[in-house]
Amino acid sequence: MDPDIDRKWRRKTNDEFEFDYARNGDHLLTPFCCDTCVFRKIQDRDPLLSNKQDSELLAFIRRANLDSFWSRRPSTVAQNGGIVRRNIQELKDRLNVTRGPYISKGPATSYDSEGYVVAISVLLASTRPGRYEKSHSQWQTVRHVKSAIANFERSFNEGLALIEDDKAISQHFQEGGSSSYWYSKFAQGCRSRMGEVVKKDLALEVVLIVAVLDVIEEKILEASKTGNRSDRDKWIMAGTYIAISYVLSLRGNEGFMLDIKELRNNRSLKKGLVWIVLSGILKGESTPSLHQLRSVPITGSGIEVQMWMDRLAFVHEDAGRNEGPAICDEDGYLLSFSAMNELFWQVLDEVYDVSPDLFPKDVTSSEDIRIKINIYRTLRRSSDSKAIRQGVSKDDISIVARWKKKHAAKGKAAAEVMHINYADQELLNECFARYTSKM
User: Model-level pTM?
Assistant: First the structure.
């Protein structure tokens, strides 16, 4: 992807030094403190230019100041400066007013009230190698440094708040650099300078999903013949995870919410459907919430959901496990994302060697599989794409994904359209049947 693509969509400026200098009038829009003064705030002394670390800190301070200025485009700075100059001239010429409204507030505070150390922490994090670029990390990654600092600052909240009783709304005050006006301008400018590269996991055609499950089936049979129970169980879990995540449009972490106890309690079909119960602990609660999803036993593309669930139940019966995560390692601990991804990629590699034409056009090598396909979103995007292509109604899609909103609401009422909000999930079997049958 062209790293300059975001800039190319702006009008061409021929400014190769964009973001690297200040403009006349920046100080009228953004709080400013010179690099040396900021250094004194942070270190409580003057910088030593012979000191490498001092010089580097001054460079980070300069970068932070420039980013805060470039939260505004050059045209905005120029226009605002012109208005200010005209205003001052008119006040002086017509009314002989020479004081105000642009009065200096005097020297800045002696401590870092602006949040320069927060900004420098973010800039420092951006110098680490990223997932897509070896030279730096993206804004979406480094912004979490500010979140961590803000969380710490809130831990010292003195309890002052604005309360709106009739709406039961409260707004708490926060003191610290992460909540300053200057930092918000820095963040805006830094994000604009760095840009964002978003690489979505690719969706896969159902024929490729079926091919993956077929290869896993072969691995299970081979492991059973050789008596390798560990391999057999590993591939049964991988097959079940892939099948239900695709059929029910689950995101990466959601497929790991299968619970052994609920798996055992829902072995038989109910009203002709396989009941797939996900178990998750909500924030602030100690007991799991259960989310009851359903699927047809065999989907339109031939994915045998009931068979995979029965196999998974057998694995845990054979191992003597009665509770805990159903997608687990040999010791019964929840399987890691990376372990499941490796299994998924391994099978995709084998399918690619035989049938590369089944893959999206953006996959041109085995290396692309690991870069562009991931369990976190690939299976969900594949399912959603199939549902839309098959003409599944928006209501059916919403009902299948309804549990996600309830889980994300953390015990509160989930925001839903009125007719879905009043619908009883227990009576919506047909919605699940219509959706999953199209998979």
Answer: 0.71
